[in-house]
Amino acid sequence: xxxxxxxxxRVDYRLDLAEYDLETARVMLKGGRYMYVGFMCHQVIEKxxxxxxxxxxxxxxxxLELLVNRSSxxxxxxxx
Length: 80
Description:
With 80 residues, the protein is mainly α. The protein has one domain (8-70). The chain has 3 helices and no strands. It is flat, with a radius of gyration of 15 Å.
């Protein structure tokens, strides 16, 4: 069966998941589950970066640096 989701549908889906993950991070923060807060925030950033990948299917990776480099975002210059 062929995937019939449009690019817009995929973006909306990722944004919905990112919002859900962020709310989960808030709940974990209230409960003092700090390690999981960091994990969920990483998931939020990953999903948002996947939305910003330039018109191509995002790579299957959890490497935020790679996702930033493949995205349409300007990378910060840490060499200063």
